[in-house]
Amino acid sequence: MGEAACRQIRNICILAHVDHGKTTLADHLIAACGGGVLHPKLAGRLRFMDYLDEEQRRAITMKSSSIALRYKDFSINLIDSPGHMDFCSEVSTAARLSDGALILVDAVEGVHIQTHAVLRQAWVEKLTPCLVLNKIDRLITELKLSPMEAYNRLQRIVHEVNGIVSAYKSEKYLSDVDSLLAGAAGEVEQELVEDDEEVMFQPQKGNVAFVCALDGWGFCLSQFAEFYASKLGASTTALLKGLWGPRYYNTKTMMIVGKKGTEGVSKDPQPMFVQFVLRPLWQVYQAALEEDGDKRMLDKVIKTFNLSIPPRELQNKDPRVVLQAVMSRWLPLSDSILSMVVNCVPDPGSAQSARISRLLPKREFMVDDTGLSSDVIAEAEHVRKCVEACDSTSDAPCVAFVSKMFAVPYKMLPQRGPNREALNNQPTGEGGESEECFLAFARIFSGVLHSGQKVFVLSALYDPLKGESMQRHVQEAELGHLYLMMGQGLKPVFSASAGNVVAIQGLGQHILKSATLSSTRNCWPFSSMMFQVAPTLRVAIEPSDPADMGALMRGLRLLNRADPFVEVTVSSRGEQVLSAAGEVHLERCIKDLKERFAKVSLEVSPPLVSYKETIEGEGFALLENSKALFSGTEHVEKTTPNGRCIIRIQVMKLPGALTKVLEDSADILGDIIEGKSGKRNGSSSSNTPVDDGDSVATLRKRIIDAIESEVESLSAQLDKERAEKYRKLWYRFLQRIWSLGPRQVGPNILLIPHLKAGNLDNSSQGQKNILIRGSCDVSRRLGFLDVETDDTIAVVEESKEETESPYVEAEALKSSIVSGFQLATAAGPLCDEPLWGLAFLVEPYIFPDSSETAHQPDQYGIFSGQVMTAVKEACRAAVLQNKPRLVEAMYFCELNTPTEYLGSMYAVLARRRARVLKEEMQEGSALFTVHAYVPVAESLGFADELRRWTSGAASALLVLSHWEALSEDPFFVPKTEEEIEEFGDGSSVPPNLARKLMNSVRRRKGLPVEEKVVQHATKQRTLARKV
Ligand SMILES: Nc1nc2c(ncn2[C@@H]2O[C@H](COP(=O)(O)OP(=O)(O)OP(=O)(O)O)[C@@H](O)[C@H]2O)c(=O)[nH]1
Ligand SMILES: [Mg+2]
């Protein structure tokens, strides 16, 4: 295969919100170009790409799958993806392997939350997007809009989608939920003209299609422009420009004019798009579907466009069949879409050179003088060049990326190879485990792959410069058979060259979820994919019969490999914990486990909801006593059992925005703190923005922005002077960050002692104490320190004393203090859940050891352990003393419901402690869209309950949004007179919500729960009888 062949390839995926018609659209493309795997009559109804039983049953797509199509001289690899939130990881795997994306939007429902998410995904992966406005028929038949109204609506959708993309372009960072809320559509002005070069989607540019996947038709403007050009004798280019936007046709002068130019010619002028495109469509629909429709319109279309339609179809009694017969021949859907793809989406060669900065970001490294690594670098650079150029010659290095592994039963694999030779596709018993065969879903980026070839499998952590120490991250593997994918079907091929999407057998033992394949060790792994959310719904699983434990463990191992998103872990109590993205995903995992992978009956626990712990209060409260820090009584003090170390801790709350930045940037922070190059981009798996610049600088800016926005939002409550003081305080704190926690990257900060601190005022024995000053490691890495200030703070002052034992000891104890902080932030005092958004000021003092045992090495080990425990205990105690609060995760929930079910929907929301943000009537329809926050703890069975109560009319989509502290005090006991009046004297106060949640977590974890178990035994017995 040469370069020419590569130019004839297009790799695209279809992305959209759930139910906007992706699989239906794919059906039509497959029927037309899939080599006969789908009969055109069934197109749109079969949903060929939804071949799993569970997908057909639920009528939603759950995985991404690929099909190879032939259109004219082009090979097109089409990947259909799921729209449901729970399977968003499959969108990431699809996007990584594609060069272009068809972004579908339902013309009635408009832009929804997953539309935002997929636009972001396409943007991050540097795909070339095309917009497809689907379900145009619903505007005619359901909403009964006039062509003019329909035009306004379509225009608004295009405008809104463009707005979202331009926000990404300007690198404004917003999470999907934020951007949805921020974009809450203010009324768009009429007559938007969008022919600015910068605007992404423009119908006149040919990257917007208007389609009805159900009836199998669709068009781009060029089709109409060409038709009218010949009819009116005008130029196609001029017409193309005139067919979108406020352009009118003056019938007298036969000119394309602005609105003014129509004065005196027509009373109610309509834009050309309405007059020339929508009106005829509306007429055909009316002619076909309405009783008294003018049937001559159909004949006119058939004649004008010379359509050959079998009379059998035209005489069909069902008007829908007649309509489809005419429309699908007049404006065949597959032609419009695929010609758009061929024209707008780049071939793999051009696409890869544009995507290279995302796929294989340029590395910065130190060349050492051994000369050894310079060879490695030279080769790795060569490999990168070949990927950039999509070199498909056979002597180019082979590079492929596997975006997921999927399981296929052995009996489904082809039995014959490319030359009809028998393939030995029997269960090889890979690890003696199962009848499932694992295939890698991969795209070749350089060179030619063939079966039997030996390749290196590189994990995301592999670094070719680190040689031997990297053995764990690289393996050698031999490729099994290669297949082109035809949905469920697999077509064996000998080899496949750069630019193609294939399935590869034989890597099951080597790859868990994703990996880079390369013919040389000297190659960087591709950057990791971005996932929209992390798996958050966790359940514990055990076999109904304990004897089946072995089968369950095997099953979990297989499931973990077969599903790109599921996570299997073991809890501290030894339970097997399965984490999934949401309820639908979880259900499918359990079903797969029971029926395919483990084949045993299982018990599934209720969801293990995660919480966090924090304290109440605003950060600025510390202004009041900032002077008194450490002199007042605000701190907690702990002494180690040997009395040699006193730890003082004060806790305060971080500004909310800062907590969020730290949380969102965990991956970048991890890289920065570990000291990896700060110039890598987009290697994150969470919501980090993608930038091509310096990630340290970006992060620093976001942190500063967070502080500024906090100060700004406080300006209403604080006078100018105090606001300024508050700002200064935080800027100073930013220079004093010793560590973040938990796990070095969490949203909690450990601050080094204040410069002025140093002497323990109550040093009772009159001994001289030493303050362990710590070092502002994190501040330095983030670039908040100038070198000079750094030194003055970090170095223990009198260097002459450094050799003295207490100073050496102080140096050595630093790590114990950080460890204590890490432990404390990993498990808070309420119910051992991680802490959230707190800063700890620490002042550790040690006293010189005068005892005999001082210099025995094991004594030191014990002492450092004691210090660690003391720090941990002090942090926990400090939280407990400062109004501790439980923090719960919230879903952002988007609901759609017909007006008559609004009441039932609100009832369901109320039962789930939901907070409604906005409700909005969808223009021109009887549907309401409601946005609300629902606590994760209350979300189980939410969608089901909603369906039951609204007879299936309302739908809900949940996206993990943010963490929110419960305002209730879990330890609340009525104290003031008013409280006692309201709640009683405390003996019979029912535990409040925070307490209940906290206790349920404690019980689950086997922690002691303070509860009055039985109060009035006799009474309780009679009550309990009723069951
Ligand atoms: N009226 C109308 N309905 C359509 C059209 N296209 C698709 N539908 C219907 O919309 C529903 C969803 O279609 P799918 O193709 O399964 O949607 P999807 O985007 O693949 O959904 P997921 O994969 O679950 O995200 C089906 O009932 C289709 O019949 C259209 O152009 N007009
Ligand atoms: Mg689908």
UniProtKB/TrEMBL annotation:
One example of a Gene Ontology biological process annotation: cytosolic ribosome assembly
GO terms, molecular function: GTP binding; GTPase activity; ribosome binding; translation elongation factor activity
Keywords: Elongation factor, GTP-binding, Hydrolase, Nucleotide-binding, Protein biosynthesis, Ribosome biogenesis
Domain Tr-type G, residue spans: 7-236
Superkingdom of the organism of origin: Eukaryota
GO cellular component, one term: ribonucleoprotein complex
Annotated protein name in UniProt: Elongation factor-like 1
Species in which this protein is naturally found: Cocos nucifera (Coconut palm)
